[in-house]
Amino acid sequence: MTATPDLAPAVTAASPELLRSVFRRHAAGVAVITAAGNRPVGFTATSLTSVAAEPPLISFGVGTSSSSWPVLSEADHVGVHILGEHQEDLAATFARSGADRFGPSTEWSSGPEGVPLLAHVSAWLVCRVVSRVPAGDHRIVIAEAVAGSHSGPGRPLVHHQGRFTALRD
């Protein structure tokens, strides 16, 4: 029988701050989600998850107060971009509120279904949105992959302790 650690001294009541603090300790891959509307929109996401292989489903969370949400709330398709360790600046641009995300410093083009596709990413998917599930102040978007590529350069970009970093060997 193994002893259980005494957790009492470290117990904190659940709160948004506790959740953020706990998840800063969780290393996550970095993705950018894009969609087309009257204007292209996008945001940096660390909540990307593979849901099922058959059919090929993914999910991600998006805040309903996000500047991207009005377009994402109606988009039929989204772009999912897996960033490489060489794309820290791109991740920061898409994470920054008020940034010109599709300005001159961002290389992109219109892809399948009119979805904005970012250049030089490690991998990308175009996905058809199948569901938007309410989850507190967010929505969980579930989408089915319809096209993609996994032949881009670089090792993955990772988010940990509130900053972007690369994997170590």
UniProtKB/TrEMBL annotation:
The keyword Transit peptide does not apply. Pfam families: Flavin_Reduct (PF01613). This is Flavin reductase. The keyword Oxidoreductase applies. The lineage of its organism: Bacteria, Bacillati, Actinomycetota, Actinomycetes, Kitasatosporales. GO terms for molecular function: FMN binding; riboflavin reductase (NADPH) activity. PANTHER family: FLAVIN REDUCTASE, FMN REDUCTASE (NADH) RUTF. Keywords: Oxidoreductase. One of its GO terms (biological process) is pyrimidine nucleobase catabolic process. Residues 23-166 form the Flavin reductase like domain.
